[in-house]
Amino acid sequence: MATYVIAKQGESAFHIVNHQYSDETxxxxxxxxxxxxxxxxxxxxPYFADCCPMRGPEIRLGANVRGETAAETDMHGEGxxxxxxxxxxxxxxxxxxxxxxxxxxxxxxxxxxxxxxxDVETIDTxxxxxxxxxxxxxxxxxxxxxxxxxxxxNGDFCAKNHFNSSLADLSKARGGRMKWFNFHHSFVxxxxxxxxxxxxxxxxxLVDGERMALSQLCLTNPEVAxxxxxxxxxxxxxxxxxxxxxxxxxxx
Length: 252
Known about the structure:
Elements: E1 2-8, E2 15-18, H1 24-41, E3 47-49, E4 58-61, E5 80-85, E6 88-92, H2 96-111, E7 114-117, E8 120-122, E9 128-133, E10 135-138, H3 155-160, E11 180-181, H4 187-190, H5 193-196, E12 206-207, E13 210-211, H6 222-238, E14 244-245
Helix pairs in contact: 1-2
């Protein structure tokens, strides 16, 4: 366990540093760390890439910073590790999104940062920000994380709360979205009644003795599963950027 004085009386010896070829997400993470540490300590901590000479202790974000940091390849893609390494602090992860989450978690732990809505945040202020740090490793318990209400689709709110919502305005800088295909009730698309109902009414629900095109599928018919699987496989093949494909009953 080492002790680091991040800032004292509005001044800091630290610098925030990422690899010179870091992507947009890691660069955004660095700017967020700089912004919120300024709010917490009144210290404007310089931020630059590692092509610049080292000028003192550094908070290093992401892999390959000065050839000394590595991606956390043994972790979940959105996990992260915050370490004290000699005079430096590192925030590393398997992915750039994980680095961004690590920055927000650093601020939560050491500055009591919280984002409650897109318009309401809190952070403590310090004359002296002194932290004790060895290693903090965290991984998400769930691959997909979302708060499903209108104001929670704001990209800043989602990123700060480690949400990877499929519907939020999560730009590349904010880590991007976990992309779903057909994020809704999909039976009507898996076995489209406009295509199948006339010749195969038995594919659709029997309601009071009548086959209904716009209700649900007949899940006891094995041909329905075959048609749905064929459709689903075509979605997967044609949408490689998506990681989740909706198979869900219609909303009626």
